[in-house]
Amino acid sequence: MAISRRRFLQQTGLLSGGLLLHSTGFAAMNKRPIGLQLWTLRKELTGDVPDVIAKVAAAGYTDLETFGGGGDFFRMKPAAFRKLLDDQGLVSSSGHYYYPPDETFDGLIKEFITAAGILQQKYIVIPAMPAELYKTVDGLKRGAAQLNRAGRLCREANLQLAYHNHAFEFATFGSQTGYDILLAETDPTLVKMELDIYFAVQAGQDPIALFNKAPGRFALLHMKDMDKQNPDLNTEVGSGKIDFKNIFQHIRAAGVDRIFVEQEDFAMDPYQSLRKSADYVKKLL
Question: Looking at residue 77, which CATH number applies to its domain?
Answer without folding.
Answer: 3.20.20.150
